[in-house]
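User: quick one
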Amino acid sequence: MSESTSQAFSLEALRAGDRTEFARLVDAHASQIYRLALKMLADPQDAEDVLQNTFLKAMQALPSFEGRSSLSTWLYRIAVNESLMTLRRRKPEVSIAGNGDAVDDDDYVPTQFEDWCCLPEKELLSSEARTYLDQAIRQLPEKLRTVFILRDIEGLSIRETSQALDLTETAVKTRLLRARLRLREYLSTYYGERLAKEST
Amino acid sequence: MPEKLNCQTLLASLSDYVDGVLGDALCQEIERHIAACDNCRVVVDTLKKTIYLYHETAATTEVPIDVRARLFHRLDLDDFIQK
Ligand SMILES: [Zn+2]
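Assistant: Done. Structure below.
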């Protein structure tokens, strides 16, 4: 969601605990937070918990919100942290260092050169394909996944993404490129098979 | 003077290229390269398509009514559940 949407809210009223204004804020941003959590966690119940906790924390933290980023970006930031905590709780056996840091340069280099662009839209976005798209994103290391979801799915700018994740813009760009290239590989495998079927 | 663009160096500018924020000179170099290099052309085209497909799947998800109602309840905003 764009920054202009957020600016339509009275920060003064929100900071003062105005319930009507807060209810408006929730309605304006609940869908984007729910989507983010669903993509991150792939579980409706967990996503709902993240949604609730995000707005509870926002409610508590609003008096000290300084407005250095937009409200929208700030909410994303809380929601990303909540989602990551949920993931940590799920698999405590995985050390944080091992979780997505091992992103080496080999992942960079494309290995699939099937040109599946010409497949019909109906096939590219069939319900089976959509399920595959969701699975593929879950195979990304967390660090790549968050950047990709915020930038390419939710449509935040590089700057907003860097604010939401507390990363430099350079780090966002590096991770974004890796995420995109990896997903392209996954999708090439999937759609490449469809393409082969079609030509037989 | 930038070194001559090859398949490897093209990768580094790929995101900026598909996002349309790359400078004119480098942009033209990439276009010249992919006109002659089939693999890179496919990578560029399928990368654009990958981003497009994910973007398409997102816009349709709205928070369900019952989820919204429980959210408002949890936030002690029950009187705002009716829009
Ligand atoms: Zn090439």
